[in-house]
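To make the argument concrete, we let one protein speak, a sequence paired with a row of C-alpha cells, as a model reads it:
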Amino acid sequence: MTHTLKHLFAAFAAILLLGGCASVEVADYAADRPLLDLRQYFSGRVEGWGMFQDRSGKVLKRFHVVIDAKWQGDTGTLDERFTWSDGEGGGNPPRRVWTLRDTGGGRFTGTAGDVVGEALGEVSGNALRWRYVLALNVD
C-alpha cells in the first residue's frame, strides 16, 4: 500500500469505528407505525431524491431517481434510473439494477453491478437499515 492509501484506510477505519459506537439500532423503531412492508413499498414505480455531501456537510450534487420495482416470490428487482444535477453524475451510473432477496424475519440481501459484495437490510417498525459499499467515482 502507498503511504497515502494507508492513511486513507486508517482514517476510514477510524470513522467506521466511531460511527459504530454512536449508531442507532433499527430495533429502536420496532414500535413505530405504519409498519414498513418493503415488498409493498417497492412495488411499481417509486420516486426519490437525494444528495451527496462532503464531510463538512456541503452538498456536492443532487439526484432524482425513478425506480421500477417488482417481485417474483422472494426475489425483487429495483431498476433505478438517475438524473444528476450536474447533468452526468460525474461518472456515476445513470442506472442501477438491484436484485433483492427476502430472507425472512424482516431481513433482506441485495446485489447490484456497482455494489461491492452483498448489501444487508433489516426492517423494524417503519424503518429500514440498508448497509452496503458502493463503488462510486468521487471528484
Observations:
- The first strand starts at residue 44 and ends at 53.
